[in-house]
Amino acid sequence: MVDTDRVTSDLPASRHLLRARDLADARYFEPLTVADLASEARLSPAHFSREFQRAFGESPHRYLITRRLERAAGLLRTTDWSVARICVSVGWESVGSFTTSFGRMFGVAPMRYRASHPAASRLALIPACVVRTYSRPRNRTFREDSAEPRP
């Protein structure tokens, strides 16, 4: 049997930082805190923040905010969801603070950002075979398709 505490303590600190970063990437939409990420890295929050900053060039909080805003930009480009729905789906609680942060990062408000890209409906390509299948008449003309038994 392997002692998992000993094995994880033998790993370099950067490996633990990667686990925390992976957690932020995978669960950006949840209300994660620096303490949650530090716990994943098995470091104290203060030490974790310093090491994360040194390893990745930005604070853990800034990294999480950046991931959320990048995902929001993707949703604005590819969906017709409202800004409020996108805001909540990427982990923000306030549309106002989301709009302000989005504007700081991208230089425009979310609606202007969306307007500068092709409409999401133009990106949803439907194969011709699917269009033909769903556009066929629904009425049956063959006897074997009727629900009534034959005499």
Spatial extent as radius of gyration: 25 Å
Instruction: Kindly report the average pLDDT value.
Output: 82
Output the number of helix runs.
10
Shape: elongated
How much beta, percentage-wise?
Answer: under 5%
Helical amount: 55-70%
Distance between the termini: 73 Å
Structure class: mainly alpha
Encode the helix/strand succession as letters.
HHHHHHHHHH
Poorly predicted spans: 1-8
- Secondary structure tally: strands: 0
| Main beta-sheet strand count, sense and barrel state | none
Identify the notable features of this structure and list them briefly.
disordered N terminus, mainly alpha, 151 residues
Element layout with pairings:
Layout: H1 4-9, H2 13-26, H3 34-41, H4 45-56, H5 60-78, H6 83-89, H7 95-106, H8 110-115, H9 120-123, H10 128-135
Can you offer a commentary on this structure?
This protein is an all-alpha fold and 151 residues long. Helices cover 64% and strands 0% of the residues. Helix 2 (13-26) packs across helix 3 and helix 3 (34-41) crosses helix 4 (45-56). Mean pLDDT is 82; it is low at 1-8.
Brief sketch in words of this structure:
With 151 residues, the protein is mainly α. The chain contains 10 helices and no strands. The model is unreliable at 1-8 (pLDDT under 50).
